[in-house]
Amino acid sequence: MDNIVQKRHKHYYGMEIDIKIIISTQTMFRILEYGLDRSDRIMKEKIVNKMIDFYRGNRSDVRHFLKVYAYAQTIGRLEGLDGKTQDTLEIAAIVHDIACPLCREKYGNTNGNHQEAESEPLLRIFLSEFALPEEMEERIIYLVTHHHTYTNVEGLDYQILLEADYLVNADESQYSHEAICKFRERVFKTESGTHMLDSIYSLEEA
After folding, report:
1. Tell me, what DSSP letter sits at residue 188?
2. Predicted model pTM
């Protein structure tokens, strides 16, 4: 079976990184059809483990991304995403707040616009060791660099990431009932995500 060689040339703050990936055509077919290569059944678990290390003992950040990951995984499955889109969504959920430590140090806050601006170079370094399909990696970077942008939302992976993050943020930041209702009307679209929001925050009783 012939092999496909992917060579990626990356730039990161003046550093140049060459990454060569050799993938069999049979493996590439499985990736395109089903998402991640199932021969590595713990790929996402490895990414979770690396993300925990990345936060260097910040338990609040660890709790947050694990909760967003769980919601995103559940909503995606309930909405019937295909394997590739589900994997893309789940990895994006794991790494969605990768820029938070840098933003705290650089700006003194984790405002969404700062996170979106700072995420891409961090993600390219972080994800490089996992040899994800290039299209998937680019989509993950797009989702993370837009996860505080609520307009022009294209794709269920994008929509579900917004909903999963808000389900967690509304609790952690103690948003008011009125604010949650307004966000529901403005942003929530999936049946599963909306049901979770209504159930958790007793919106159906309002």
Report:
1. -
2. 0.81
CB contact at 8 A, 13 and 124: no
CA 4 from chain centre, in angstroms, equals: 27
Report the 10 Å Cβ neighbour count for 70. 15
Predicted pLDDT at 41: 72
Domains of the chain, first to last: 41-205 (1.10.3210.10)
* Burial class for 128, CB neighbours closer than 10 Å (0-12, 13-18, 19+): middle
> Six-digit token pair at 59?
């338990």
Q: Is the pLDDT of residue 146 over 90?
A: yes
Report in angstroms the alpha-carbon separations of 82 from 41, 64, 76, 87: 17, 25, 9, 9
Q: What is the mean pLDDT of the chain?
A: 86
Burial of 146 (0-12, 13-18, 19+ CB in 10 A): buried
Rounded alpha-carbon distances, angstroms, from residue 133 to 21, 120, 139? 10, 17, 10
State the DSSP string of 14-74.
Answer: TEEEEEEEEEEHHHHHHHHHHSS-TTSTTHHHHHHHHHHHHTTT-HHHHHHHHHHHHHHHH
Single-letter amino acid, residue 145: T
Q: Using the predicted structure, report yes or no on whether residue 153 has a pLDDT greater than 80.
A: yes
3-state SS class at 139:
helix
- Spell out the residues 6+ positions from residue 172 whose beta carbon is closer than 8 angstroms to its own: 64
